[in-house]
Design brief:
The structure is a single chain. The chain is an all-alpha fold and 458 residues long. It has 21 helices and no strands. It is elongated and about 85 Å long.
Length: 458
């Protein structure tokens, strides 16, 4: 990160390499201010201008500005203004356009804010240098099209490659520092970058033409509206996730043995659904359903959940009410959609011997059939209060044995294929901890308690 900040400082030095022409400082200042404001719009937070007006109004009234938690910024950037600077300004000046966002951005961590501004400055400088070397400014002033599109496209590609390389490098360093493992995807801007580039080109053409900067700013309005709407959607999604995580945390505090179980069931459910071709909004809703499937345990006595031994018939019936409790808890949360029925019916069986309503076959909602397999799989491969975790191969064999009677065979096959493709890390007990005292009962052998379904959790 320090290298990126140093690189940003280097490209701003007034050397012949970074400054290839006279600098229109009013244009630089205006573009920098526009970029800072539109970045705030894209993140769904008040712009620096609006925040300044609010502070001034509070000071004139003699009252303190409203306090409270700032809304968290949504991921994303608004790049048309920055691209317009790349096309209209010398490289060093184009890099300056990105810097005011460092001081006015919504990101709470200053170092991260500085890195974001620095990486955009380095990428903008590189793109402007390439645009200048390809004769772009001359073609832009002459409005020669489509010849002008080639250097502009090359500048956009250079911007994306440099920006993506810097983000990927930081991710690799962060994962190495936190000892995380796995593949780090290369961070490259998607199709939105091309749309932003076209907006920047339109802005530059209008600004350099007879209409001036006012028309160029008006050209940003359609993109501004779409960026604001997208930011609101991202913030709403973040609020949904926070709601789900709070409910799950409450369950896991109450039942220590299920700590992490909810998230693993959500992940396994997504693996199954992805194998079946599910995508988009339904996949996200399914993840919520899998993560919240046991939220009804908040209504079950803690002593029953933590019992390290058999339950009586009456106690087991008290535990089996948790799907109905869960459905009641989340019934008023509209964004869950199909998840409501999944939470209610995830303990139904294909042969109709499940609970709470004894549904059978295709009458069981699809989400519930997926979660039933994911729930049983994680229950078998992780340690519970009444049984030690088993190896993945043994759990897969038990799922296949119960396919058709307890589980949907289609969902079982999808889970097996997904596990073979992506792998699964079971949560096995540590022999030097209290978990070593948990009974080691092979799968398929009934526990010392009545009405136990194969592999399923309480």
């Amino acid at each position: 990160m320090l290298l990126v900040l140093a690189g940003a400082g280097a490209v701003l030095l007034p050397t012949p390499v970074s400054w290839t022409g006279p600098v229109d400082w009013p244009k630089v200042a205006l573009l920098a201010g526009l970029h800072a404001c539109w970045e705030s719009i894209a993140q769904g937070v008040p712009s620096p201008f609006l925040r300044g007006v609010q502070r001034l109004r509070a000071r004139l009234r003699g009252t303190a500005p409203l306090s409270g938690p700032e809304p968290s910024p949504a991921p994303g950037s608004f790049l048309p203004v920055l691209f317009a600077g790349v096309l209209m300004l010398p490289p060093g000046a184009a890099a300056l356009v990105a810097l005011p966002a460092m001081a006015t951005g919504a990101e709470p961590e200053r170092l991260r804010r500085a890195f974001n501004a620095a990486q955009l400055a380095v990428a903008a400088w590189t793109a402007a240098v390439l645009f200048d070397r390809l004769g772009g400014p001359r073609l832009l002033l002459g409005a020669r099209y489509p010849a002008e599109l080639l250097p502009a496209l090359a500048a956009v590609v250079a911007f994306c490659l440099v920006n993506g390389a810097l983000v990927t490098g930081v991710r690799l360093l962060a994962e190495r520092r936190t000892d995380r493992c796995g593949r780090t995807p290369i961070a490259l801007p998607g199709p939105a970058a091309l749309l932003h580039a076209l907006g920047g080109l339109l802005m530059a053409v209008l600004w350099q033409g007879p209409y001036g900067g006012f028309a160029a700013v008006l050209a940003l309005l359609p993109l501004s509206v779409s960026a604001w709407v997208l930011a609101q959607g991202q913030r709403e999604w973040s609020a949904h996730r926070a709601t789900v995580e709070a409910l799950v945390q409450a369950v896991e505090i109450k039942d220590a043995y299920t700590r992490g179980h909810s998230e693993r069931v959500g992940r396994a459910s997504v693996l199954i659904a992805s194998q079946l071709g599910m995508a988009g909004e339904r996949l996200r809703t399914l993840h919520f359903a899998g993560t919240l499937h046991d939220v009804g345990k908040l209504g079950v006595a803690t002593e029953l959940l933590r019992r390290n031994g058999p339950l009586s018939e009456a106690e087991r019936r008290a535990v089996e009410v948790h799907p109905e409790y869960g459905h009641e808890l989340v019934r008023g949360i509209d964004f869950l959609g199909e998840a409501h029925a999944a939470i209610l019916h995830h303990h139904e069986r294909m042969d109709g011997r499940g609970y709470p309503h004894g549904l059978a076959g295709d009458r069981i909602p699809e989400f519930a059939r997926i979660i039933a397999v994911a729930d049983a799989f994680d229950s078998m491969t992780s340690t519970r209060s009444y049984r030690r975790g088993r190896p993945v191969a043994e759990a897969v064999a038990e799922l296949r044995r119960c396919a058709g009677s307890q589980f949907d065979p289609v969902m079982v096959d999808a889970l097996v294929a997904a596990v073979e493709r992506h792998g699964w890390q079971p949560v096995l007990p540590a022999t030097d901890q209290a978990d070593a005292d948990v009974p080691d009962i092979p799968l398929g052998v009934p526990e010392p308690a009545p009405r136990v379904s194969a592999g399923g959790g309480r």
